[in-house]
Design goal:
Blueprint (H helix, E strand, L loop, with lengths): L1 E5 L9 E10 L10 E3 L4 E3 L5 E7 L4 E5 L14 E6 L22 E4 L1 H6 L7 H5 L5 E3 L7 E3 L7 E5 L2 E2 L4 E2 L4 E2 L6 E7 L13 E7 L7 E6 L4 E8 L6 E9 L2 H9 L2 E15 L5 E19 L4 E22 L3 E28 L5 H4 E28 L2 E22 L20 E19 L5 E12 L4 E15 L2 E12 L18 H4 L4 E15 L2 E20 L2 H8 L18 E22 L6 E16 L2 E4 L6 E10 L4 E10 L3 E2 L4 E4 L1 E3 L5 E3 L9 E4 L9 E2 L3 E10 L8 E8 L9 E7 L8 E7 L5 E9 L1
Parallel strand pairs: 2-7, 11-16
Antiparallel strand pairs: 1-6, 2-5, 3-4, 3-6, 8-15, 9-10, 11-12, 13-14, 15-16, 17-18, 17-47, 18-19, 19-20, 20-21, 21-22, 22-23, 23-24, 23-41, 24-25, 25-26, 26-27, 27-28, 28-29, 29-30, 30-31, 31-32, 32-33, 33-34, 33-35, 35-36, 36-43, 37-42, 38-41, 39-40, 43-44, 44-47, 45-46
Length: 804
């Protein structure tokens, strides 16, 4: 919807004057991009920061703000720097226009438009790969989409789509995301200091707002390296003021390769349908349905080598929701969301693979290397029936009260069945990559409720100052505990396009298997209530300054501090467990040093971990999509440590320095060039301390020294004990991605074709260092070398988009 307002100007002698300002959502205070601002002189569109600059004529000018789904009202003022608040079919037509624009109370917040996801070189149409170029955000590895934000772990990130918590926001095991940019209005990541309306996570908040369908029947299709998608939208045929939007995505490589290889390669298909109806002033009812299926079933035998592997997966994501937005009188708005969500992941692997990290020092490579027999089945299931209620009340012209609650009925289950060898190159035994501390067999079911209630007052004593105190209450029947989380924010706009913000508060996270979908480690929560596990906690302090440097260009510097307490980790073996394990080794006296006698990390939970993270970010962005050159620069300096197992050590995603440059340049009206350059410090990692004799289990159940067919001792890598965790640092990471796009008709063109190269320079980035043993002719034991792995190779690809 659109609204129109007028106001008298001060006496002017010129024919026209320029008005600047910012447009934001009146409830969330988030900037709104792509709003048409129409005057008698010209029409402009707000940038990704919600800002605009428009000429208006002398006399009795009229400005029109046009964007789907919003109502508009006005407050008269006597200057030309405006803050426009649009309300999403809530409140009676309300737009506040104030003097110096006050930045929304959303610190550390970055908005990325869907168009930018498509245009960022190296993003592969995946929002998470675009987000990792923002300050303070680090991708945990190249192939997955999991993010570590300002010293936090991936399981500490909250993702909401249209107000619904999404527990698994990935497809193809993280290679791509669950969100189709073609159907999204905007993505907003808040790296810390977010408000009390969001909880049960310690680190960051990603909000995904889907756009409503257009009333005009139209469609779009696109093809990327991972999948193809198809979108249709239009007006509902059976009701006035209604729209619908349907999208479908699926992988395409499997259609051909499955026939050629007689395999079922990893693939996914998903469908999403949204429909919404407006009735009465400021009332809207909408429904959303989502169905996603991923599967794989393939096997391979390496003739003559003795190696084999068989892998099966079955992953399903389903969502159904209903949402009702309504005006309650002249000063209040209400949003009610009811949703049902299910995520089910079944993985099955059975294989025998040569272990490059286990061999004798024989010169006969065919007999020297050992094998790892890996057999496991894992089921992870999350069902979430939830209700969310948001209520906003304009109590006085200076006080906006936001309150609400959320309830989740959770049914979560984890099943493990593990046999064969464990992954000895994982220093932490609770690692999901086959750590030695994982249970052999487990069937754990957690059923319970968790919920939260919040209240917040946004107090604006003047047009320059906003004060935002709030309180959140959380509880969970899983651990039988509750928490109080006070939070506070203050923003000030001294003028001259400068904005300052302070935010602080307590953030908590309850124990739950639904978080472990994104975790690096597994902990058995079966006895959560019996063990009286605490909420994990973090205190945030964020201080930032932002300044406009010109039209649609801004710079921000932000410092932060996080203090973590009661973090959940796997506890160390007890003395009895340690003694029982060591007693199974039957090694000669001369080989006693090869027995891992130090206590190992198990999957049994404890709250005995903490830590801190602090640093600063610098962010410069230019969002004028009509300019020849657009993009952003970001730099982050951070330090993050963990305190557990009686020591302090570097957090595994502690990245001291990270610089990103993202740019798009218009060569001609039809040709565009884009590039993304990244350079960053390497992550900490657990470096090997040497080699030890490998062990194998005999018919007695004892561990005895392993030998090759010629009777030579087999060796494997020794990673020491907890004193050695994250003792090393990976080499620096550097990558350049390049894209060139041909779009007839320019930005208004209906189709485009692009060619892209990921890792253009072909650098072998050491996302991890894989240990390998090679023959050492000058020694009785093999030599250890570490090889860079898990980084993107050079990947050329093409993509296509069409709108009709």
């Amino acid at each position: 919807m659109w609204g129109m307002f007028t106001w008298p100007l001060l006496a002017m002698t010129q024919d026209s004057i320029r008005v600047t300002g910012i447009v934001m959502d009146g409830v969330t205070l988030a900037p709104i991009a792509q709003v048409s601002v129409v005057s008698q002189e010209e029409t402009v569109v707000t940038d990704q920061a919600g800002r605009f600059s428009v000429l208006i004529g002398e006399g009795e000018p009229r400005l029109r703000f046009q964007v789907d789904g919003y109502l508009v009202t006005i407050l008269l003022v006597e200057n030309l720097e405006l803050e426009v608040q649009l309300f999403r079919n809530t409140f009676t037509e309300t737009v506040e226009v104030v003097g110096e624009a006050v930045e929304p109370e959303q610190g550390s917040s970055n908005v990325i438009a869907p168009e930018e996801v498509f245009e960022v070189a190296g993003s592969i149409d995946n929002i998470f790969r675009a987000l990792e170029t923002l300050p303070g955000v680090a991708s945990t590895d190249d192939f997955s989409s999991r993010l570590a934000v300002r010293g936090g772990t991936p399981d500490q990130n909250l993702t909401l789509m249209d107000g619904i918590e999404i527990h698994n926001p990935y497809r193809l095991f993280g290679i791509t995301s669950a969100f189709n940019p073609e159907t999204v209005e905007n993505f907003r990541l808040t790296a810390g200091g977010f408000g009390v309306a969001y909880g049960d996570r310690l680190s960051s908040l990603l909000i995904v707002d889907n756009r409503p369908g257009e009333k005009k029947f139209q469609g779009a299709t696109a093809l990327s390296i991972t999948d193809g998608n198809f979108v249709l939208e239009g007006a509902t045929p059976f009701a006035n003021n209604g729209t619908w939007l349907f999208s479908a995505r699926r992988t395409y490589y499997d259609i051909v390769l499955n026939r050629l290889t007689d395999q079922n390669l990893p693939a996914f298909v998903d469908f999403q349908l949204q429909a919404g109806w407006e009735f009465g002033p400021g009332h809207r009812f909408s429904v959303t349905g989502l169905r996603s299926v991923e599967d794989a079933d393939f096997s391979k035998n390496w003739t003559g080598s003795g190696q084999r592997a068989a892998f099966q997966s079955d992953v399903k994501n389903d969502l159904a929701s209903a949402r009702f937005d309504a005006v309650l009188g002249s000063r209040s708005t209400s949003t009610t969301i009811v949703s049902w969500y299910r995520n089910r992941e079944l993985l099955d692997f059975n294989g025998k693979i040569r272990a490059d990290a286990k061999r004798s020092n024989s010169t006969n490579d065919g007999a020297a290397f050992g094998f790892a027999t890996i057999v496991f089945d894992r089921l992870l299931s999350v069902r979430d029936l939830s209700v969310r209620q948001d209520l906003s009340i304009q109590a006085t012209p200076k006080h906006l009260i936001n309150t609400g609650f959320e309830l989740h009925r959770l049914n979560t289950r984890v099943k493990f069945a593990t046999s064969g060898d464990r992954n000895g190159i994982e220093a932490n035994g609770s690692s999901i990559r086959g750590g030695v501390g994982l249970p052999d067999n487990l069937d754990s079911l957690l059923v319970g409720m968790r919920g939260g209630f919040w209240i917040q007052d946004t107090y604006k004593p003047s047009s320059r100052l906003a004060i935002e105190p709030g309180l959140r209450v959380d509880w969970s029947t899983i651990n039988g505990r509750g928490t109080l989380s006070p939070r506070f924010a203050l923003s000030y706009a001294p003028g001259g396009g400068t904005r300052m913000r302070l935010a602080t508060g307590l953030y908590t996270q309850s124990p739950g298997y639904e978080k472990l979908i994104q975790s690096d480690y597994f902990i058995d929560l079966s006895a959560t209530r019996k063990l009286k596990l605490e909420y994990e906690k973090a205190i945030h302090v964020v201080l930032g300054v932002e300044k406009d440097l010109g039209e649609k260009m801004a710079a921000r510097v932000e410092g932060y501090y996080k203090k973590f307490d009661d973090l959940l980790i796997g506890r160390l073996e007890t003395k009895a467990e340690q003694t029982a394990r060591v007693s199974k080794y039957d090694f000669s006296t001369s080989l006693q040093e090869s027995i891992p006698t130090a206590p190992l990390i198990t999957s049994n939970p404890t709250n005995e971990a903490g830590g801190y993270a602090y640093g600063f970010d610098v962010y410069l962005n230019h969002t004028n999509l009509a300019a020849p050159l657009t993009g952003w620069l970001s730099y982050a300096w951070t330090r993050a440590n963990r305190e557990s197992y009686g020591r302090r050590y570097a957090f595994e995603y502690d990245r001291r320095h990270a610089f990103n440059a993202v740019g798009r340049y218009r060569l001609t009206s039809f040709w565009y060039m884009a590039a993304t350059a990244r350079i960053a410090s390497g992550f900490p990692y657990t470096a090997p301390v040497g080699l030890r004799v490998s062990a194998k289990q005999d018919s007695r159940g004892k561990f005895v020294p392993e030998t090759d067919p010629d009777g030579n001792l087999m060796y494997t890598v020794d990673y020491g004990n907890v004193e050695n965790l994250n003792s090393g640092q990976l080499p620096y990471y550097a990558r350049v991605d390049f894209r060139t796009t041909f779009q007839p008709g320019g930005s208004a063109g209906r189709w485009s074709l692009y060619f892209e190269v990921i890792n253009l320079l072909g650098r072998d980035n050491p996302v991890a260092l894989e240990p390998q043993l090679v023959n050492d002719p000058d020694s009785t034991v093999p030599r250890l070398v570490e090889v860079a792995s898990q980084g993107f190779p050079r990947i050329p690809t093409v993509g296509f988009r069409l709108r009709f």
